[in-house]
Specification:
The protein has 224 residues and is of the alpha+beta class. It is built from six helices and eight strands, in the order βααβββαβαββαβα. The protein has an eight-stranded mixed beta sheet, sandwiched between helices. The longest helix has 17 residues. The model has no long low-confidence stretch (mean pLDDT 94). Bound molecules: coenzyme A (COA). The site of coenzyme A has 21 residues, from strand 4, helix 3 and helix 4.
């Protein structure tokens, strides 16, 4: 029998909720060797900078998913994506990344940076991790390179290959992805996910309208 639809909300994680988000992240990274663990100080800094996003179950108020998009070196990294197993497969992971990307595109405008023109938004996926690939390809990310991190430079929790390295793929966001993202926010998404669960973006109407307008205004920008 299909599960009864539930209601969720997605919003930026504010500083007061950073400790809760870190507990969530720590639990995921303790059991999943494909997710790069971040420190409590890093998660707190991402929340302080409005770069950390969460999904909450309305009925219980419980945090059920997180993702961050942060500037690291000369690019923006989508990372830490995780959804509690109790609500995977409902479209929450995909909606979280869309919200985080929209937020980043609209307010931080990485591709417009004068200091570092053509900043890319990238995601890194462990070589053996199948779960997030459809989310990123469906959002218009394309493969840019493979990445090999020597074992002595990677956190102990990350899965190594036979040579002792941590290997994965770097994917980058594209102009087509940006156009589709704008279309999804402005026209397609009506508050219901593919399996019937309800989802609200907790932003306030004016801010959501501004976000939609900013996305429409960026459609001509090219992260390529
Ligand atoms: C990856 C993860 C966040 C996906 O969250 P989710 O809420 O279940 O994702 P969605 O429901 O939005 O799924 C999006 C698509 O990915 C597919 N997908 C989800 N899990 C999958 C899996 N384990 N294997 C293959 N495809 C999968 C879904 O079928 C869906 O495709 P559809 O739109 O055609 O139905 C979740 O599986 C998770 O937390 N995994 C552990 C942490 C992790 O691997 N994080 C990624 C770090 S890069």
């Amino acid at each position: 029998m299909a599960a009864k639809p539930e209601s969720f909300r997605i919003a930026a994680v504010d500083s007061s909720a950073a400790a809760n988000a870190f507990d969530f992240h720590r639990a995921i990274t303790a059991s999943d060797p494909h997710v790069w663990p971040r420190s409590e100080a890093q998660i707190k800094a991402y929340a302080d900078d409005q770069c950390l996003f969460g999904a909450w179950r309305d009925s219980s108020g419980e945090l059920v998913g997180i993702v961050y998009v942060v500037p690291i070196d000369d690019q923006w990294e989508v990372g830490g994506l995780s959804v509690d197993p109790s609500c995977q497969g409902k479209g929450i992971g995909s909606a979280l990344v869309k919200f985080a990307l929209a937020h980043t595109m609209a307010w931080s405008q990485p591709w417009k940076s004068k200091r570092r023109p053509k900043q890319q938004v990238v995601a890194h996926i462990h070589k053996e991790n199948a779960a997030p690939r459809k989310i990123f390809s469906g959002l218009g990310f394309i493969h840019s390179k493979t990445v090999t991190i020597p074992g002595d430079k990677a956190p102990p929790s990350m899965k190594r290959d036979q040579s002792g390295n941590v290997c994965g793929d770097e994917l980058r966001f594209t102009r087509d992805g940006l156009i589709n993202l704008s279309r999804w926010f402005n026209e397609e998404f009506k508050g219901v996910l593919s399996r019937g669960d309800e989802l609200e973006f907790d932003l306030g109407k004016d801010t959501l309208d501004n976000l939609r307008a900013a996305l429409r205004g960026s459609e001509g920008d090219s992260p390529d």
